[in-house]
Amino acid sequence: MNKPLRRIAVFCGILVLALLIRDNWLQYVRADELNSHKYNRRVEIERYAHERGDIIVDGKAITGSVETEDSDFKYKRVWKNGPLWAPVTGYSSQAFDSSQLENLEDGILTGNDDQLFFDRTLSMFTGEKKRGGNIVTTLNGAAQKAAFKGLGEKKGAVVALDPKSGAILALASTPSYDPSVFAGNSMEDSDNRQKLLKDKDKPMLNRALRETYPPGSTFKVVTAAAALENGLYDDIDAKTDSPLPWTLPQSTTELKNEGSIPCKDASLREALRWSCNTVFGKMSDDLGNRKMIEQTDKFGFNKEVFTPVRADASIYPEDNKPQNAMAGIGQASNRTTPLQMAMVASAIANDGKLMQPYMVAERQAPNLDPVYTHEPEELSRALSGENAQKVQQMMETVVKDGTGTNAQIPGVTVGGKTGTAQHGLNNSEKPYAWFISYAKTDNGSPVAVAVVVEDGNANRDDISGGGLAAPIARDVMKAVIDSKK
Amino acid sequence: MSVVTNTTTIGAIDAPSRRNTELVLVVFAVAISVFAYANVGLALNGELPSGMLGYGAGLALLGGVAHLVVRRFAKYADPLLLPLATLLNGLGLALIWRLDQSERFQALSTFAPAASKQLLFSAIGVGTLVAVLAILKDHRILQRYTYISMVVALFLLILPMFFPAVNGAKIWIKIPGFGTLQPGEFAKIIITVFFSGYLMVKRDALALASRRFMGLYLPRGRDLGPILAIWAMSILILVFETDLGTSLLFFGMFVVMLYVATERTSWIVFGLLMSAVGAVSVATFEPHVQQRVTAWLDPFAGWGEVAASEQMAKSLMAFGSGGTLGTGLGQGNSDLIGFAANSDFILATVGEELGLAGMMAVLLVYGLIVERGVRTALAARDPFGKLLAIGLSGSFAIQVFVVAGGVMGLIPLTGMTMPFLAAGGSSVLANWALIAILIRISDTARRPAPAPSPSTDAEMTQVVRP
């Protein structure tokens, strides 16, 4: 019986060998794949096993980490004044992943990023507790507060940029939400998140970056820039060729102005001051669809913007002639994000140079050493310095004695443009109030702002860019200027 | 009188008993387990755990008693079997104790610490070993109980059918005031006794009375009867108790023993064919089995929908997260597997916390037990002992393969426990009994031939003794 016994011994050996091979396959070859598998809860456990780094505004942390009683996740993310900063930070939830800065800078915040390799190795030897790095933002706390205070209960968004560098100074979206309410993984967190998701006001939508609106009359600034850049007009105080009434091309529809304002052959300055639809509609038609698209491209339209948080693309589409004419006054199929209109204002304020908008100034290792510092970067040359100054003069007239007087700040030169964008079929819904502006001091322009208010509650006749949005822009600009003093 | 003065040619000096080797290895096995406790405590709470002394002392006592009993009743037994079993039992205790510390488990309403119970069962297990060695002076006595064994085994196998299914399988019986028992574990040993006894008698008939057909020896119908009966029985167990593991184990073991008894390869071919037919036909209509097969083919596909798939996926992720060296005892998250983490899936904890290195070590320990068992079969002098030893070690090997292969996703999961390592009273008890019988057989096999009684007048006469 010994021969079969020996064979059985070999067979048993093969069984054990098969197990050993399988084990090597699992724990050596496939270890990384399984370890980082999306269903592997250990990834989440590890993420919250130590304190997450902070997001910093004005030198102070606007986030924090608290120790929890939870058996899986030791630390939980908390936000100081969550609703105020949620449009900037996004959320980081134990159960529901993360978004925006919390998501994009996760590597630094958890301390796992390759940029922190040296730091990690060092602390391995010194026996320091693992901790995440910090993200220093460009935001200005006073401006952010002013933006939120101005928007108040109304739905809307504010974006403020530093025209010289592209730094984002304020990024507000209302109604906002407190990411702390679903940062954990309890049933309560889940309920809170569901409530937010079901809210018809969409508090978790970042209106400043992810919502596109018809830009309304604020777009006339872009049309004016296109006219100057393409040599359609040269002198902003010379008469334009603008009949009144003016009929849309290939159509019998007359384009109307708001009230009886002096728009017949009005100069560029006067047309912008009174926000003449006929003048800018015809201007857009004279330039044609292609040239308008080219100009909007230079302002950053038609592609997504990364701040590094992604902003939706603002679009100026290829269109037929009547649509293109309407788009020239921001009233057709062109749509923009508040960020995009702030970029338009900042490019004009910065003498035509459009800077890449950004909100991460510095990434810090846990020991506060910077591992990355942002260098301002030119995105494009939107218009020539000369033409930019012409548009500035026009916009300053608007604020001085036009539709935008509500944005005046004593002792500061302010340029702006109002907008009241109709929306809904046949203008059935309440319009959006827009205002874009910049402020100028002796050292150039420190701030450009775009404000949009989509207020369903306001009385229809009260809705106008000058009335609703301009005071908010003024307060934000004032906050920035004051904080620089 | 001294053996040295014996002038006969046989066995002048005692064969080495290797008992001291065994003692050193037992001490080593206990020490490793105590270190494992210390490791868990230091990792979880930063201090030596209070349970360490109790479990360590308990395990040392068990190992010591077992060793002394072997020294007394089975002097020439294989010196590796006891230390290897002690090592696995001790390591298992440490792992179960570690899982008891899991906050995730403690939060569950169904949680009950299992380590102290496991220590109790280990004690009963070692008690069984003592009893077997003390009472069973010669394994050949078991031969007398061939048919009684068959009846008892069948009874034990059928018993769970009258009890409600637990987690989809009817393999438990509930004894009020005592807990649950898995009779299949004991049936495994008892049926081996039956097979050994039956095959020892029938091996010639099975091996020789056959016709040649296409290069294979086909056995006669009347000899084929028993194998068909066993095959049918294992399929029936599978169907009624949805216990894939046990039926696979019985059938595999029977094929192995048949092959050894008859020395005919044809039995293996038949065995494989029949198990294939059985497995495929059952898999076509048994949803429990189908689920396991689906979970095996793509464990991640059923995430969040099918519990079996999710459990399988969690097990694989535990292995993957362990990597080469593991996270260290107490520092992994193998308890994420949840239910059955300390029984069927205990290897996932080994994989995650001790890593590839620890897993290979554990698998090799199992491999060593099996190969020592096969060696015992080789060394045994009687066909019954050979068959019994190969049956026991074969079933041990198949069980290890089926369980470990199952949790590692090599084969579909069947729901048996890892011998010694997993929490479970029946399993620990039965496996200690199995080791005890192997020790008994190895003692008989390695015992030197009895020295002839010295004759006082040998020198005077120099004649051949009667």
List the uncertain runs of chain B: 1-6
**Terminal Cα span of chain B:** 22 Å
Portion of residues within helices of chain A: 25-40%
Structural class category of chain A: alpha+beta
Distance from first to last alpha carbon of chain A: 100 Å
What is the tally of beta strands of chain B? 4
Rounded average pLDDT of chain A: 90
Evaluate the radius of gyration of chain B: 24 Å
Main interface: chain pair and counts: A-B, 37 and 51 residues
Helix content of chain B: 55-70%
| Strand order of the biggest β-sheet of chain A | 2-1-7-15-16
What report would you give on this structure?
The complex is a heterodimer of chains A (485) and B (466). In chain A, a hairpin with a 5-residue loop joins strand 15 (360-364) and strand 16 (370-373). Chain A contains 18 helices and 20 strands. The termini of chain A are far apart. The radius of gyration of chain A is 28 Å and the shape is elongated. In chain A, the strands form seven sheets. Chain A has a five-stranded mixed sheet, with no helix packed on it. In chain A, strands 9-8-20-19-18 form a five-stranded antiparallel sheet. Chain A is of the alpha+beta class. Chain B is mostly helical and 466 residues long. Chain B is built from 16 helices and four strands. In chain B, the strands form two sheets. Chain B has a two-stranded antiparallel sheet. A two-stranded antiparallel ribbon of chain B has the order 3-4. In chain B, helix 8 runs parallel beside helix 10 and helix 14 (383-407) packs antiparallel against helix 15 (425-446). Residues 1-6 of chain B have low confidence and may be disordered. Chains A and B meet through helix 1, helix 2 and helix 3 of A and helix 9, helix 12, helix 13 and helix 14 of B.
Quick overview of this protein structure:
The complex is a heterodimer of chains A (485) and B (466). Chain A has 485 residues and is an alpha+beta fold.
